[in-house]
Amino acid sequence: MSQSKILTTASGAPVADNQNSRSAGPRGPLLLDDFHLIEKLAHFNRENIPERRVHAKGSGAYGTFTVTRDITEYSSAKLFSAVGKQTETFLRFSTVGGERGSADTERDPRGFALKFYTEEGNWDIVGNNTPVFFIRDPMKFPDFIHTQKRLPQSNLKSAQMMWDFWSHSPESLHQVTILFSDRGIPDGYRHMHGFGSHTYSLINAKGERHWVKWHYKTAQGIKNLAPADAARIAGTDPDYAQRDLFDAIERGDYPKWRVCMQIMSEDQANRHHENPFDVTKTWSQKEFPLIEVGMLELNRNPLNYFAEVEQATFGPSNMVPGVGLSPDRMLQGRVFAYADAHRYRVGTNHQQLPVNAPRSPVHSYQRDGSMAFGSNGGAAPNYEPNSYADAPKQAPQYREPALALHGDADRFDHRVDADYYSQAGALFRLMSAEQQALLIDNIAGAMMGVSADVVERQLQHFYHADEAYGNGIAKALGIQLG
């Protein structure tokens, strides 16, 4: 029989009694010098870190990305250097608007955040299961998220504030159409596509830049839940998507996605009839066809949800040589917002946690801060430039090519193209009659109780996208469009 382990405090001191607090006599008050009691209570009070402001409830798993096509003509990133090359990944799925205890089957976009542990550092792509987003400018992000959360007075969700915001933000119509379609409630995380959503960039060894859209096509096939089934599951198994993903991996049924990209040259972007950096619009796949570049497989569950999923941090600021950003306004706002959220929520040194730590060596001049691990730099200098030959030095060979900018610095109105409707209308017309009817029914149900002025304003957006779209919702609401 093996010898049992000795219980210790977090500092490693043996615990003699884990059942009784120290007190002044058998009936007296407790004593402040009971450091074991104080440590247990203090740690318990801090076991929950602040939940994410958005994407609070999520599921994650480790996997691999395997290159299936040579794309070195577009990117010098080493993870793409050879067909067959594998890179370890971590993928976190999530709902967007709900809290950590919310149901997995709510009508909501799903986050699709992917971390590549490359030999040159970590590369993160933050996206969703939709190719577009509700807004174009990060100035409006806090306002939008407020409408998806709860009213300050009642702490209740409000259809009024959601539709009020959307009705004043016509650029949201494309995403709203997707959200209330049959794809608005995926059947778990395995049966949905993922998208980088934003426009990113790739840079090759010659210093040539191409703009890129990332697509992850589920190999399991698209499956969605009917609203009635989603409501039933929310009441009987609110962790439905988490359970489905975990169990599938445990039984060896590893989910896979084909990793594809759309490519646009800088010259093509300059001549494109639409703004290629507008996240409320997609690129035509006829004009910019999908190119399959690899296969993503999830094949290992985390050992500890809190350590590896709740504390996982993703941000578009995590890049490696050969990949880059774009002038996409929302992406540029997220470069700051995501990393700053992690510094607040997890800690200054969140990158040092195992799930976030790169697999490649780290040589930086960052020191101290909460949760600084290891030697904290030891005797090495914490400043640069310095006189030490073995200290980290900048590497100019990794500079990105210059991006030509022009125009006056100003607050330019992003609502100037007046085309909020063509892609939403085209999506509506692509749907079958059954899908259109479900979309109309979903939207009409979600608008019940919303004030007449907001309904009228929003109906005009639907009508401009497609007359049958607007008239169908108006009829379902018992309204005659004038």
From TrEMBL:
Molecular function in Gene Ontology: catalase activity; heme binding; metal ion binding
Catalysed reaction, written as an equation: 2 H2O2 = O2 + 2 H2O
Active-site residue numbers: 55, 128
Gene Ontology biological process terms, A to Z: hydrogen peroxide catabolic process; response to hydrogen peroxide
Domain Catalase core, first and last residues per copy: 8-392
Region named Disordered: 1-26, 367-396
The enzyme's E.C. designation: 1.11.1.6
GO terms under cellular component: cytoplasm
PROSITE patterns: CATALASE_1 (PS00437), CATALASE_2 (PS00438), CATALASE_3 (PS51402)
Compositionally biased residues, Polar residues: 1-23
One Pfam family, short name: Catalase-rel
Residues reported to bind heme: 338
Cofactor(s) recorded in Swiss-Prot or TrEMBL: heme
Top EC group: oxidoreductase
Protein name: Catalase
Lineage: Bacteria, Pseudomonadati, Pseudomonadota, Gammaproteobacteria, Pseudomonadales
